[in-house]
Amino acid sequence: MSNSRVLSPFRRIFAFTLSIALLIAGLASAAPSTAAAQGTNLTTGCVKGYRPSVDYFPQKVSLEDATGFKVEYFKNYKVVTVLNPWNNAKEQFKYVIVQCGTPAPRNIKDALVIEAPAKRIIAMSTTHLPHLEKLGLLDRLIGMDEFTYVNSPKVREMIKAGKLIEIGSGPKVNVEKTIVARPDFVMTYGVGDPQFDSHPKLLEAKIPTVINAEYMEGTPLGRSEWIKFTALFFNAEAAAQREYNLMKQRYLAVARKTSGIANRPLVVVGTASRGRWRMPGGASYFATLVRDAGGNYLMAANPSAGSVQISLEEALDRGINADVWLLNAFQRYQNIGALLAEEPRYERLGPVSKRNVWNYDKRLNENGGNDYWETGVGNPHLILADLAKIFHPNLMTDHELVFFRKIDR
Amino acid sequence: MRASLPRVGQAESHLANPFPPLGIRRGALLLLAGLALTAFALSLALGPVSIPLDEVLRILLGEQASRETWEIIVVSVRLPKAITALLAGAALSVAGLQMQTLFRNPLADPFVLGVSSGASLGVALVVLGGASVSVSVFGRSALLGDFGLASASTLGAASIFLLILAIARRVQNVVTLLVLGLMVGYLTSAVVSLLIYFSLPEQVAAYVNWTFGSFGGVTWGQMQAFAPALVLGLLIALASVKPLNALLLGEGYAKSMGVDVRAARWWITASASLLAGAVTAFCGPIGFLGIAVPHLCRALFGTSDHRVLMPAVILLGGTLAILFDFISQMPGARFVLPLNVITSFIGAPVVLWVVLRRQSFARV
Fold it and tell me: In A189-321, where do the E strands start and end?
């Protein structure tokens, strides 16, 4: 334009149209700054032209089942608190998630500030992967603690393509490698034991590290609602809300099928070791699943939310009338014979003579990584449907087992 | 010096014989035996599941119980557990007594020779090492179980046992043995730490569970190896009473009494390692009993005479083991506690009390 000396009327009209077009294009490219006002969160890029009066998070999450974290929304930042990071924790973790392109609040003391939407994340547990996958954010994943256990085909492809780094975990976490990778944040979990936890070392090195405490939730739905927690860091509230609702609907649909059933099989869970039997407590995640799937859990009356050890004689005394046995064992038993070779006293358990023994090892990768702990955690409706089918085969004819495998004779 | 001291058997005078006839202690031993029997019977009759006493008797007499589970519980849970506890308690206490006398050290325990470290190494190699040598999950499955643990720890304990025996044949003094045991302990714990460092949480949990100790893991099948090993070890120990008494007064004195010190040392080492190794292999490393029961018996009987102490530690060791196991799974309790927690919590204060009350330890 500028190099045309004389502008004919046609050219003038053309130039005018062009400049209008450019103006519109310019406005469109600047759209992120105004999108918030139009009702959606900014899931990529940063805000240009920050205005304090704008609510940058018009899409918010509301929590229904999770009790382990809470989130407070402000105009350009949100404060998320992990209330119950591990068993008997004395501390809570507070994260200030600030809309990228807007100023961080001042009065936050020592809380960790992370800019959203995050672009680079390292996940320290396979249970975090389904969140990213469902939210369509796998491309933001740049690393993991270790690859051994990964089941997700997409993530395994990324590993094969060399797109991810492996940083290790616990006290041997590779801090230098992590710093070089420049993650916006690392998502990990804690158990409150410095011998085992990774976050103390990472935080010491000023790497933004976020505790995900989904495993502390006592219900399957509560656990999977942590997808909303992950979403907060990517402004992906809308997708999280949608995915969670879908998952919950499916879960409740299965639970509804079994809720009216009076004939509930007696279910024994876990294995014995050295004369003691470890079972999930009656208020635990797994006890909830058994109940919702229409089973009568042996330890239902126990008040513990963790796991409890009972004596072998008590387990045998009560287990002799059991109908179903869910091993939930790390090791993979080829058949019932292998199980009996290890503990001959299993023989008198009801489910052994009824040949109704199951383990959740149907989907193991070649390293023993169990998809139950990956896909299962984010999709409790699949575990529930498996259990419902095991307990009531006639009820769930159209469901094919995902995680559970029957132990052969 | 040598000529002036009488040989055992020749000396009839109480003045010359440091170990007078047993006298009243026979009655006390009988009382202990009664206690052991009572504890054994109690552990069959009482447990987390309440079973009527007449039913227990009927089951033990081989008759039909009115509930099938009761029969299983008494025959395949309580009976093997009670026998295991009795034997293991006796074995650890005897091994402790032998080691305290052999090393003339009140702090010596059954594990001072390193056999339990050997057992831990065996278990650690199987449980934790599985991943390092990348055995597939399928191969690892059988090894993580109780039977695999017992085999692994037996192998570990046995190899250290053989090593110690080989060295004990040549070694000139006991301090060398003591140092050897200590070094074996350090070496194995280093390897175990290394393995833990590179292991998966599930494997570490299986290993830690083993270290808690338990009498409940021995099944009738395993009992066929466990019981004969311990009975053999106890018999050797009973036969070593005289040399032990002689060693109490120093190796020079023992030699002067006609004791073949080197042979005695070898047999004592052999039986103590066998006893401690077999118990650790099948029950895990069980603390406290081995070091404390000899002290308790010395205090109770007021003597260091092994003719009294040997049967006494067998009886008291067995009784306490049954008792501790009973406490770890009290009737009516909603959960069970690790055995080693109980032995230390209850055991250590008792020993402290005894020590402070009678400072007889200098006499060991």
Answer: 209-211, 266-269, 272-273, 276-280, 296-297, 307-311
Q: Is the dihedral of CA A222, A225, A227, A229 positive or negative?
A: negative
Closest CA to B195 of B124, B141, B285: B124
Q: Can you tell me the ipTM of this complex? A: 0.71
Counts of helices then strands in chain B (DSSP H, E):
17, 0
Residues in chain B with CB shorter than 8 Å from the CB of A273 are 145-146, 206, 209, 217
Instruction: Report how far residue B187's alpha carbon sits from residue B181's, in angstroms, rounded to the nearest whole number.
Output: 10
Residues 6 or more apart from A293 whose CB is under 8 A from it? A254, A255, A258, A384, A387, A388, A390, A391
What's the Rg (C-alpha) of chain A?
26
Q: Tally helices (H) and strands (E) across chain A.
A: 15, 17
Domain positions in chain B are 2-363
Set of chain A residues whose Cβ sits within 8 Å of the Cβ of B147: 341-342
Chain B: residue whose CA lies nearest to A149? B200
B206 contacts in chain A (CB < 8 Å): 273
Q: Which of B49, B81, B220 sits opposite A317 (nearest CB)?
A: B49
Pairing of strands A324-326, A266-269: parallel
pLDDT at A27 over 70: no
Q: Are A316 and B48 within 8 A, CB to CB?
A: no
| Closest residue by Cα to residue A100 from A166, A195, A28, A36 | A36
3-state secondary structure of B353: helix
Minimal Cα–Cα distance from A117 to chain B, Å? 33
CA–CA dist A391, A7 (Å, integer): 83
The CATH architecture one would assign to domain B2-363 is: Orthogonal Bundle (1.10)
In whole angstroms, give the CA distance from residue A402 to residue B343.
45
d(C-alpha B268, C-alpha B98), whole Å:
7
Q: How far apart are CA B314 and CA B37, in angstroms?
A: 12
Closest CA to A94 of A208, A197, A195: A208
Phi and psi at residue B230, to the nearest 5°: -70, -40
Collect all residues of chain A within an 8 Å Cβ-Cβ radius of residue B217. Answer: 273-275
pLDDT surpassing 60 at residue B1? no
Partner-chain contact A330 B219, CB within 8 Å: no
A277: nearest Cα among A322, A310, A318, A326: A310
User: Is A332 within 8 Å of B219 when comparing Cβ atoms?
Assistant: no
Rounded-to-integer distance, Cα A126 and Cα A104, Å: 31
- What token pair was written down for A361? 């090892």
At A10 the pLDDT is: 62
Q: Cα angle vertex B134, ends B132, B138, to 5°?
A: 130
Interface test with B, best of A124, A127, A313, A333 (most B CBs within 10 A): A313
Count A/B contacts: CB-CB distance under 8 Å. Answer: 100
Could you tell me if B88 and B255 are in contact, meaning their C-beta atoms sit under 8 angstroms apart? no
Sequence-separated (6 or more) residues with CB below 8 Å from residue B346? B324, B327
Please check whether residue B148 touches A, CB under 8 A: yes
Q: How do residues B290-316 score in pLDDT, each as one tens digit?
A: 888 998 898 888 888 999 999 999 999
Q: How far apart are CA A386 and CA A396, in angstroms?
A: 9
In chain B, the residue whose alpha carbon lies closest to the alpha carbon of A350 is B69
State whether B69 and A316 contact (CB < 8 Å): yes
Model pLDDT, residue B182? 82
SS3 of residue A211 by DSSP: strand
H or E, element range at A79: strand A77-82
Instruction: Beginning with the edge strand found earlier in the chain, give each strand of the sheet holding A209-211 in spatial order.
Output: A165-166, A141-144, A121-123, A185-188, A209-211
**pLDDT tens, position by position, B51-62:** 888 888 888 888
